[in-house]
Amino acid sequence: MPLKHAVLALVAERRGYGYDLVQRLERRVGPAWRLSPSAVYPALDQLERDGLVTSAAGRCGTRRSPRVAYAPTPAGLTALEAWLVTAGATPEPMRAELHLRLAFAHARHGDALAAQLAAHERAWRELLARYGRRAREPEAPRGGTALVDAAVVARLHAELAWVAQARATLADA
Amino acid sequence: MPLKHAVLALVAERRGYGYDLVQRLERRVGPAWRLSPSAVYPALDQLERDGLVTSAAGRCGTRRSPRVAYAPTPAGLTALEAWLVTAGATPEPMRAELHLRLAFAHARHGDALAAQLAAHERAWRELLARYGRRAREPEAPRGGTALVDAAVVARLHAELAWVAQARATLADA
User: Fold this and answer.
1) Interface predicted TM-score (ipTM) of this complex, two decimals
2) Which chain B residues are Cβ-neighbours of A112 within 8 angstroms?
3) Using CB atoms, which residue from A13, A109, A155 is nearest to B94?
4) The whole model's pTM is what?
């Protein structure tokens, strides 16, 4: 997943230091991504090695703990523009470990599977509630991020409808 | 993604040689996974290194080209059972490159994004048609695989409903 380009896009909007970028990225792409700082920092390092961003001790830190601020290079801005208009993107495969277990389970695993389905249902409901709170915030997502949130919410509703059906099927079996 | 356990489950159901296992796995987990043989063979090698399967030149080949058949070991059967009842599975993060592009695009990228949305829509429609054909085959998926297919179909309908909304929003903007 090209998180690198998303980090580049953030830096191009407004230069920032590491943790600030992590927070802005989380807010922009939404909680369904389950981003971790440990995914963002390597992306920044890679961008710097590729000559797409530069780093410098910025003014936002203190003399004792200067913060490294990242800014795009001209090559970075070109690469960003190319990525945004790339035509060849195909949807990702749809893969879930739960699906593998369902495909290979036997009747004796019914209780364990029901517990896994229930755990997924809880996680999806919690995530749906988070997206609901996001939409009601004063700074609610707009534009592209609102479209991304809508995609996640549509998918969560589909997963929740399916999991109810799957639990009923397992209970009958 | 623990494809390794799915391959182990297949071998435990009926011993098989490499390509036979690829075909059985594709049929079992469905086309949304976009499996490739190059993902299955390393899983078999890993299972053998871990002592979970054994391989032997089987009877299904010829003297000139013996086929290596895989069978589970007792340790493999124990590992499989443990995997099937593992309780800790949480849903995978929901990530899509298209979502990253949407979250960072500007008005000037509208045409490129519309083309990407249209390409995704085509791919999802084709996949939905494949699942429709699968369901109408004489050997249509049953049991756990039918549940997995239902999950994919529900998700495809959600994606298609969303993409229509996203295209309309982009066209208005």
Assistant:
1) 0.92
2) 84-87
3) A155
4) 0.92
